[in-house]
Amino acid sequence: MEAIGKYKLEIKISQDKLEAAIMVVVADEVAGSSIEVTEQDVRAALREHKITHGILESVVRDLCMSPAKFIGNPVTIAVGTPPMPGVDGRIEYTFYEINQEDKRPKELDDGRVDFYSITSIPNVVKGQLLARRTPPTPGQPGTSVTGEPIVPIPGKEAVFKPGKNVVVNAERTSLYAAIDGQVSFTENEKVNVFPVFEVNGDVDFSIGNIDFVGTVVIRGNIPTGFRIKASGDIRVLGSVEGAELEAGGSVEIKSGIVAQDKGHVIAGNDVRTSFIQNGNVTAGNQVLVSQSIMFSQVRAGKQIICNGPRGIIIGGTLQAGERIEARVIGNTSATPTVLEVGVKPELRQELAEVNRELQVVYENLRKTDQGLGVLNHMLQVNGELSPDKKAMQIKLTNTRLILEKEGKQLETRKKEVEAELEGDSPASIDVYYTMYPGIKMVFGKLVRFIKQEFPRTRFLVVNGEITTATLL
């Protein structure tokens, strides 16, 4: 703080050194109107604090002309140049025309939604470039008010996620196919090239079950009872009945699923189909349905989207980590339908499994305590136990210790899962035409029952409550 006659110029520099403020400090007996501040005084105070960069000359002049305005009132007199952060690196997929960051289905000119425009699995040849990596930029350094350079935050490095049958060059800037085949994204966006197994028609007993380390293409239907397993994607140009389909990548079923509560469809990435009726479908990422989901169990790590020309959901239980979206949900008969969002479906399944295991442990503890009670009563009456009864007592005591330990572990995990269920995950349920009564909504641990019709509404959690907003 510089003392100038009967006043002082006090300067404070911000912690990030990007701003300096000046203030006039005077004694109580000094009148502000009697103070005279010269430019030389101000420059001397700035030099004392080594302020050389970003000085606001207009503030210097104002301070000299009207010092009373600065008494006890700090005013910014210098502003540094903030650093410009670097741009994150990115991965450009050269085999895919669609943007990997926007996998939403495209809307056609007539308003219909084309769910199949994003499901094509590109064919590639050995040695073909699959992806190139753009490095991050270091950013531009800034300058503090004291003239010192401020180091910028560099951009984050983009990292290839190579899967099966792909190679990365020595510089790790390019990703290539190691074989001829079709590209498939599996868990955590790994890029794979898989060979293709094709069935030119329906799956029948002449073909049997399929377990293939690659991509499977069925050019017909899959009847009830058959099992198709693929490391890559499964594409079915016909329909699927009560069969079991499991893919490390995505599953595309062009003509829909009519499962009659049999079988299941499981995909590490996406499931795309026309409709699901009495089915059991699980996707690590998204479930995309163009027509309807009827009386089915559907789970998606991120989104369930049923927003085609019909886009209707009736009955069953749907669980999505982020969002459920449809044109119509429920019907005029108030058919019970459960929609759960906000946490990954596997958490709910795990909680249910933990509760089942706890019930078993508690029941076994009850039986063990009952047995020990009988033996203790015999000991009190007879004064001792026969060798076989004593051995049983030791066995039951050890069993009880094991059950207690198992119960404590399950209780701990139950609390952890319940805590995750209470998390404020950004989630919503969107209905673009009408939601009918009979719907049970679950956001984490919050529950709401729909008892009236809602047109064009988004349901989401605000301040710990399930609220609504009108969709335009």
From TrEMBL:
What domain of life is recorded for the organism? Bacteria
Q: Which Gene3D superfamilies match?
A: 2.40.50.100
Any transmembrane segments, and where?
none
Pfam families annotated for this entry?
FapA, FapA_N
Domain (Flagellar Assembly Protein A N-terminal region) ranges: 10-188
Write down the InterPro entries for this protein, in alphabetical order: FapA (IPR005646), FapA_b_solenoid (IPR046865), FapA_N (IPR046866)
Q: Which PANTHER family match?
A: POLYMERASE-RELATED, RNA-BINDING PROTEIN KHPB N-TERMINAL DOMAIN-CONTAINING PROTEIN
**Can you name this protein?**
DUF342 domain-containing protein
Q: Which organism is it from?
A: Brevibacillus composti
Lineage, highest ranks first: Bacteria, Bacillati, Bacillota, Bacilli, Bacillales
